[in-house]
Design brief:
The complex is a heterotrimer of chains A (353), B (282) and C (292).
Chain A: H1 2-48, H2 53-57, H3 64-73, H4 80-92, H5 106-141, H6 146-160, H7 163-177, H8 200-206, H9 210-247, H10 250-257, H11 262-299, H12 305-314, H13 318-346, H14 348-351
Chain B: H1 2-30, H2 32-35, H3 73-109, H4 111-125, H5 129-140, H6 144-171, H7 174-181, H8 186-222, H9 234-243, H10 250-277
Chain C: E1 5-13, E2 19-28, E3 33-37, H1 44-52, E4 60-68, E5 71-72, H2 78-88, E6 89-92, H3 106-117, H4 122-135, H5 141-146, H6 154-167, E7 172-176, H7 184-201, E8 204-209, H8 212-218, E9 221-226, E10 229-235, H9 236-241, H10 246-253, H11 270-286
Parallel strand pairs in C: 3-8, 3-9, 6-7, 7-8
Antiparallel strand pairs in C: 1-2, 1-4, 4-5, 9-10
Helix pairs in contact in C: 3-4, 3-6, 4-6, 6-7
The chains are: A mainly alpha (353), B mainly alpha (282), C alpha/beta (292).
């Protein structure tokens, strides 16, 4: 009898493993459709641009012949649909064109700046989770008291203020009033950097150059906090709510009777089950956080992708803009895919049928 | 249920505070030429970087001080409110109309209409909104209508997603069926039965969106992409303040406080309205 | 020798001032099964929760004492009380479907108190748990310990919970309607199992139930509860032979008997309830916490 049960369980898991794969493939397909849509939108928006990119590339006084030759070179004399597929074909081969303002390969420029943005966004995400989860646990622990009410009010207000304004407030507080942190740049310019990749933070840790790690973190701290605070508030609210629901369940009551303290009960019994709904939301919100890096990097003169994007827009550097927007879009859909898969894997009910 | 009632009672003073600030700021913007103490564009290098009134060296008539070109900060804030509120109302309303219409269609009719609209929403969600806004304004050219259009084009998805979900759950309910049996057409049913039920969420979102529009406009003018650089906007004052932060902190502090109060008020006002109009909570 | 559990004059109120427990006194001697019987809403589960220190936050104890083996819970600080309850008591919950954490395997859920509260070694706890699983007649402990709760049937889960409750050799177990949520056929087995383990281990049990049939099978003494008030207390045999209180008589009359199932389908007599309610309302009028 037990052997039969075990066999059935194995069949079930195999069937469910298949379901996971199927879910993954469906998601992957949706993701590709979305990316195709993004490519169309980017192409349309940029071709609608009233300013002629060719005219901007040439010195004033160029002849009509010159313009026509350059148009043909960039494929601008073909039909718009043909242009789109030529452009898309290039993109699929990793050819994003050449930046007009920087006269360099777009893909190279983007990959030079992307690590800085990824490091900033990751540090901000970790901070948001740490702050938000701490507040949620604290609030759930002291539910029904003034502490919980305080956390509710604080998270409500924090949530309503966007990262742009948090950044400005932090600049005023810790850049001017109490100048303890750097408010501009990614790293102190006088430092000698031994790095071979653009992942400065990761590399400084791997090389055990903790002096450089510290300098990088000091620069990163304020933009990261500005990005983290709204997300931390969302996590605090949602996680606290699910924690409170879970804390009334029978198995949590049983854990209390066993003699575990309220904090132990929350950490050992409630947190994992309560975190699942929060996780899905954090995924979507993480893309918003990455979107926020555009302006926050600008605010703190942090040399990341977003800062470069704004320069590209101001310089009407269309190939560069295209490249950056596509990379952001790719990042967003990948994050959503990852969160979806993580959700399926973490849910034991889904995992084991 | 209890919690909701308590929350609603607690929101009431917040409704008044938020509404009060918005009313004050809007009245100031409408009557800007009457109440602004100075010409917001008048430069006077003799008066540059005057501190606010309680500090030494302040000049009477320049209550909040002046910027690096000697322009009166208070007057610039009051005139900046005009653009902020025009953008807030026009952009949020446009986004709301576009998003609600598409959301209603997707949620109520379902099928391929829903599939297409949902796919478009997915595509839109894959854009970083601030970058999208900057890009659109760069393409459309700077100016008030471009800013409004850009915000509406980007943020309609917020309304669409919420309305679609609500319309979907409403469309499944029995009373829709009975309305159809009673002989109402599809569009009629949608407007008559679904719209009143989704109204509380729409109102809350609309108010929230106005706050977002104010921020987006500030961000755009912060990167000098909003309207012409001469007209005072809250974002351009902030950009100026960020540059002279070590010489004249007040140029950053006052527009920042204005923006925070406005954004907080819009979101709190929306929450309070939702609590008041929501038939379930009431 | 002091009682295993001694409750003296316990009263509790809701935030609106409504009394949910009315000067409840009862004691459980070592090794004894005391049934706490009453209809739903009578406050019997509330008493169990009060003893274990897991009352809902809305319920406030306003007077009375609870002693576990002579130690007054009210005089201990929160941490000491928690440790005392964890070491000397256990709970067999009502619904085995919700009483196990869905995201943790059975094994760690059974051993965590032994290891983390009582400080046993992992091996000792493991051995002990396997012994108990054997006692509750689980034939395949290996598989059960590795399972997630949703992979086990309701009856299996309740066996697991019973085994876990007895594992730490508690002096007192609160059994909160442990068979109510189960199938009728499983109910009997589980009841027999609890009785068996109780005899073998000599554990005192406060057995909360609404079912007089269960009371007759398992307990030596009974407290009958109505609207948060103990209306009668007696030896089990005596209670059935010669019920003193009108409510007890009505309750017995309303209980199905296996000999005559059709005669029993009548509710508790309305007039008896009306009289009781009036009596309690009159007592409430004069009641002040601390003077009751």
């Amino acid at each position: 009898m037990p052997r039969a049960v075990r066999k059935m369980a194995r069949i079930f898991i195999q069937a469910y493993g298949h379901m996971l794969l199927q879910r993954f493939l469906v998601r992957l397909l949706t993701m590709l459709v979305t990316l195709f849509g993004v490519a169309i939108v980017v192409f349309v928006v940029i071709r609608v641009a009233p300013g002629d990119p060719i005219a901007m590339m040439l010195p004033p006084g160029a002849s009509d012949d010159d313009i026509a030759r350059l148009r043909a070179l960039y494929g601008l004399d073909k039909s718009i649909v043909q242009q789109f597929f030529i452009w898309l074909g290039g993109v699929l081969h990793g050819d994003f064109g050449t930046s007009i303002s920087l006269r360099q390969d777009v893909l190279g420029l983007v990959f030079d700046r992307l690590p800085a943005t990824l490091e900033l966004a990751t540090v901000a995400l970790l901070m948001a989770i740490a702050i938000g989860a701490t507040a949620a646990i604290l609030g759930a622990r002291s539910r029904g008291t003034a502490v919980e009410a305080g956390i509710d009010i604080a998270s409500g207000a924090t949530l309503s203020i966007p990262d742009f304004l948090w950044g400005l407030m932090l600049i005023l507080l810790f850049g001017v009033l109490v100048p303890v942190f750097d408010i501009s740049g990614r790293v102190s310019p006088q430092l000698d950097l031994p790095f071979v990749t653009q992942f400065y933070l990761v590399e400084s840790i791997l090389r055990l150059r903790l002096d450089l790690t510290w300098d990088l973190l000091k620069h990163m701290l304020m933009p990261a906090v500005a990005l983290a605070l709204p997300l931390a508030a969302i996590i605090a609210q949602l996680l606290k709510q699910s924690l409170k629901e879970v804390l009334d369940l029978d198995y949590v009551v049983l854990a209390r009777v066993k003699g575990f303290s309220e904090t132990q009960v929350i950490l050992r019994e409630a947190l994992k089950n309560a975190a699942l709904p929060t996780l899905t939301l954090v995924g979507v919100q993480f893309t918003f956080l990455i979107g926020g890096t555009v302006i926050v990097e600008r605010l703190f003169s942090y040399e990341g992708l977003g800062n470069m994007a704004i320069d590209a827009v101001i310089n009407r550097d269309l190939p560069l803009i295209q490249g950056i927007v596509l990379v952001f879009a790719l990042l967003f859909v990948l994050i959503n895919l990852a969160v979806d898969m993580m959700y399926a894997l973490l849910n034991p009910r889904l995992r084991h049928g | 249920m209890d919690e909701a009632r308590i929350a609603r009672r607690g929101l009431s003073p917040r409704l008044w505070l938020a509404g009060g600030w918005l009313l004050l700021a809007m009245l100031a913007a409408v009557f800007a030429p009457l109440i602004a103490p100075q010409d917001p564009l008048a430069q006077d290098l003799m008066l540059e970087r005057l501190p606010p009134f309680w500090l030494d060296g302040a000049e009477p008539g320049y209550w909040l001080g002046t910027d690096s070109l000697g322009r009166d900060l208070l007057s610039r804030l009051i005139f900046g409110g005009r653009i902020a509120f025009i953008v807030a109302f026009a952009a949020a309303t446009s986004a709301c109309l576009l998003g609600s219409a598409l959301g209603l269609i997707a949620g109520y009719f379902g099928g391929w209409a829903d599939r297409i609209i949902s796919r478009v929403v997915d595509v839109w969600m894959a854009f970083p909104p601030v970058l999208f806004a900057i890009l659109l304004v760069a393409v459309l050219g700077t100016g008030l209508s471009s800013v409004i259009l850009a915000i509406a084009i980007i943020d309609w998805t917020r309304f669409c997603r919420v309305i679609r979900a609500e319309a979907m759950s409403q469309a499944r309910m029995d009373y829709i069926e009975s309305a159809r049996i009673a002989g109402y057409g599809r569009i009629g049913i949608m407007l008559r039965e679904v719209l009143p039920n989704v109204l509380p969420s729409v109102v809350a979102l609309l108010s929230l969106e106005m706050g977002i529009a104010v921020i987006v406009e500030a961000i755009l003018s912060f990167v000098s992409l909003s309207i012409s650089t001469d007209d005072p906007t809250w974002g351009s004052i902030i950009a100026e303040g960020r540059l002279s932060i070590h010489q004249a902190w007040w140029v950053l502090v006052f527009p920042l406080i204005t923006l925070i109060l406005t954004v907080l008020s819009f979101s709190q006002f929306g929450e309070a309205l939702k609590a008041r109009f929501d038939p379930v909570l009431r | 020798m002091s009682a295993c559990l001694d409750i003296r004059g316990l009263s509790a109120v809701l935030p609106n001032g409504q009394r949910v427990l009315r000067s409840v006194s009862l004691s459980v001697q070592p090794g004894e099964v005391r049934a706490l019987v009453g209809e739903s809403g009578a406050g019997k589960t509330m008493i169990g929760k009060a003893v274990l220190g897991v009352l809902p936050k809305s319920v406030r104890i306003v007077e009375g004492e609870m002693l576990i083996e002579g130690e007054d819970l009210g005089r201990l600080d929160a941490k000491a009380r928690r440790t005392l309850i964890g070491a000397r008591t256990a709970l067999i919950p009502q619904d085995p479907l919700t009483a196990l954490n869905p995201s943790r395997r059975i094994g760690p859920q059974m051993t965590d108190r032994l290891v983390r509260i009582l400080g046993w070694s992992g091996e000792r706890a493991d051995k002990r748990i396997r012994q108990l699983l054997n006692e509750v007649q689980i034939r395949d402990p290996e598989r059960v310990l590795k399972s997630y709760p949703h992979e086990l049937s309701g009856g299996m889960r309740q066996r697991v919970l019973i085994a876990a409750a007895f594992a730490a050799e508690p002096r007192l177990i609160v059994a909160d309607e442990p068979t109510t949520a189960l199938d009728v056929t499983v109910q009997k087995q589980i009841l027999r199992l609890i009785a068996q383990l109780q005899r073998d281990h000599g554990t005192a049990i406060l057995f909360v139930t609404h079912d007089l049939g269960v009371v007759a099978k398992i307990s030596q003494k009974v407290s009958v509860l109505y609207a948060g008030k103990v209306v009668e207390e007696a030896e089990t045999a005596q209670l059935f032979a010669a019920p003193q209180h009108a409510y007890t008589r009505a309750l017995i009359a309303a209980t199905p008997r296996y000999t005559d199932p059709y005669a029993s389908l009548k509710p508790v007599d309305e007039s008896v309830l009306a009289g009781l309610t009036a009596e309690i309302a009159a007592a409430d009028k004069d009641w002040r916490p601390g003077h009751g």
